[in-house]
Amino acid sequence: MHPAARLDGIETSLIRQINALATPFSVNLGIGEPNVEPDGRFREMAAEATRGSWHYSANAGTLSLRKKLAAVLAPGFDPKTELCVTAGTEEGLFALMQAWVGTGDEVLVPNPGFLAYATVARICGATPVPYDLDPDGWRLDVDALARRVTERTKLIVVNTPSNPLGSVVDAETLWRIAELADERDLLVVSDEVYREIWYESPPPSMLGLGRNVLVLDGFSKSHAMTGLRLGWIAARKPLMGPIVKAHQYIATCASVFAQDLAERILDDAEWNAGWLARVREQFRTQRDAAMHEIERHLDVTIAPPAGAFYAFVPVPFCGTVDFARSLATDAAVLTIPGVAFGSAGEGFLRISYAASIDQIGSGIERIGRYMKELGR
Ligand SMILES: Cc1ncc(COP(=O)(O)O)c(C=O)c1O
């Protein structure tokens, strides 16, 4: 028996493959979720949420949550027709690509970029077309992006702050991408799931930048709710109808427990502001520790990431998949080879600093020691 042809050539992600090499002695710097635990108030809100409805909600999510999302996070979007709550950001990505992308279409994806963009495009029958980010600061060059647009281009994917780069796209660039989409009659999806994790100033958003822009966001990273699966999409009414239809056949609705909890989070503005400030403070401390250890043990200086919790670090090896595998098995430290995020990631390792200061220190020290053993 063969699996369906749509999965031909689609492998388990390198992230999962590397994580499968973990032992109890490994230091895990390959992780893609916040090392943050809920505080007392957060757990109390979750307990209250268990006493709410256990039944299906509307496919697009409870109207009361959509109203709060519109009030707090997506001003100017009609809760009835322009917001859809999804079972995580990833399901939102899947639903919107199922709705808008098909055989023969091209989807422009960042290189390096989160690997689900190209994979989901392929599952939908489309061809992912990478657009390279400039390694000098990982800048997004709109003119270079525009040169990749063809008659078949349907969708441009933007991710800010970026996984795996930690870079942020500036407001003017976002505005120019929205303008390009309007001119060429294309769609843009802006994945902003790391939007709340920033260090100097809040990253600009594509929300409201034109009729062809869809914004994807969720509670996984901002509220360390990765296992509760809660995301949302904001898009203008003509784009949203097909997305809700696709989402209905994928998930029916997001978990009503997670939806209820999200409402409570948005209702308690004071707690939420304090929570987000603490999360940012913790990541700032971890980021600074990672920058220090990288400079000390790996002999490179990189620009401090402006958002998310990843450092994309150049290493003097070309086969970084093998290097990351041997780091996992011989040096007991997990990192993700940059090429897992596209060809432009070759020569880099993604080091996640969603880890304790001790783990960041000992993990990066192990990488440095291993590199020295190999004579680099
Ligand atoms: C850029 C990016 N988008 C989306 C996701 C998926 O997030 P969620 O847990 O909300 O599905 C991730 C998770 O790592 C991510 O890094």
Characterize the structure shown.
Helix 2 crosses helix 9, helix 4 packs across helix 8 and helix 10 runs parallel beside helix 12. This protein is of the alpha/beta class and 376 residues long. Bound molecules: pyridoxal-5'-phosphate. Pyridoxal-5'-phosphate (PLP) binds next to helix 4.
**Rg of Cα set:** 20 Å
How much beta, percentage-wise? Answer: 5-15%
The separation of the N and C termini measures 47 Å
Bound compounds, please? pyridoxal-5'-phosphate
Give, in spatial order, the strands making up the sheet with the most strands.
2-8-7-6-5-3-4
* Tally of separate helices: 12
The helix-strand sequence is: HEHHEHEHEHEHEEEHHHEHEEEH
* Total E-strand runs: 12
Low-confidence stretches: none
Major pleated sheet: 7 strands, mixed
Q: What's the helical proportion of residues?
A: 40-55%
Mean pLDDT: 96
**Which overall shape is indicated by the principal axes computed on the Cα atoms?**
globular
Q: From the helix content, strand content and strand pairing, which structural class follows?
A: alpha/beta
Brief sketch in words of this structure:
The protein is of the alpha/beta class.
Pick out its properties.
376 residues; 12 helices; 12 strands; 14% strand; binds pyridoxal-5'-phosphate
Record the SSE blueprint.
Blueprint: H1 14-19, E1 27-28, H2 40-50, H3 63-72, E2 83-86, H4 89-100, E3 106-111, H5 116-123, E4 127-132, H6 142-147, E5 153-159, H7 171-184, E6 187-191, E7 213-218, E8 231-234, H8 237-251, H9 256-267, H10 269-298, E9 310-314, H11 320-330, E10 333-334, E11 336-337, E12 348-352, H12 357-373
Parallel strand pairs: 1-10, 3-4, 3-5, 5-6, 6-7
Antiparallel strand pairs: 2-8, 7-8, 9-12, 11-12
The structure holds pyridoxal-5'-phosphate.
